[in-house]
Amino acid sequence: MTIAIYPGSFDPFTNGHLDIVKQGAEVFEKIIVAIAYNEKKQGFLSKDTRIKLISECVKEFKNVEVQAFDGLTVDFAKKCGASVLLRGLRNTVDFEYEVQMAQINMALYSDIKTVFLITKPENSCISSSGVREILHNNGDITNFVPLPVKKFLESNK
Ligand code: ADP
């Protein structure tokens, strides 16, 4: 069984992230959405809120789990028995950064393979930081995040 972890901050989880999970769930037997979380650096949403919201967004996929981790991604992958790091690509800017990350992870743990999936065109402009900025300025986030995330963010402004 090929287990893939999909690591990221997901702060918040967007339609772009969901797109990658959906595609990945068709490719891998099991996917663990792995929320990279640093206890010392509080993000926008708490760890527990991110776990709860992402779990709601992916509940239709029976082979997708959600967990949070602190530390190196490769260490978490080893702990989960994952052989694949799943990452999403929007454009060549992502590509430049992602190649470097994949090569670092490969140097740390030679058994790990990074697999990239390309987002749909309509999701390629979406980023968590963009969503935070729109929300901060009272804009409409409907087209950028799944419904459970929209509901939570709009009622907790
Ligand atoms: P990180 O902090 O590791 O960059 P993110 O939460 O921003 O975490 O992203 C996690 C992963 O999802 C990364 O591989 C990123 O490239 C990918 N990603 C982010 N936004 C999108 C999007 N709109 N479409 C597809 N993939 C995306």
Layout of secondary structure:
Layout: E1 3-8, H1 15-27, E2 30-36, H2 47-57, E3 64-69, H3 73-80, E4 84-89, H4 92-108, E5 113-118, H5 128-136, H6 147-155
Parallel strand pairs: 1-2, 1-4, 2-3, 4-5
Helix pairs in contact: 2-6
The chain binds adenosine-5'-diphosphate.
Any key phrases for this structure?
single chain, 157 residues, alpha/beta, Rossmann fold, 5-stranded parallel sheet, 6 helices, binds adenosine-5'-diphosphate
**CATH fold name, please?**
Rossmann fold
Query: What do we call the CATH homologous superfamily?
Result: HUPs
Broad shape: globular
Distance between the termini: 42 Å
Helix content: 40-55%
Tell me the fraction of residues in β-strands, as a range: 15-25%
Describe the protein in words:
It is a single chain. With 157 residues, this protein is α/β, with parallel strands linked by helices. The protein has a single domain, classed as 3-Layer(aba) Sandwich (Rossmann fold), CATH 3.40.50.620. It has six helices and five strands, in the order E-H-E-H-E-H-E-H-E-H-H. The protein has helices spanning 15-27, 47-57, 73-80, 92-108, 128-136, 147-155, and strands at 3-8, 30-36, 64-69, 84-89, 113-118. A five-stranded parallel β-sheet has the order 3-2-1-4-5, sandwiched between helices. Strand 4, helix 4 and strand 5 (113-118) form a beta-alpha-beta unit. The radius of gyration is 15 Å and the shape is globular. Residues 8-10, 14, 16-17, 19-20, 87-88, 90, 94, 119, 123, 126-128 line the site of adenosine-5'-diphosphate.
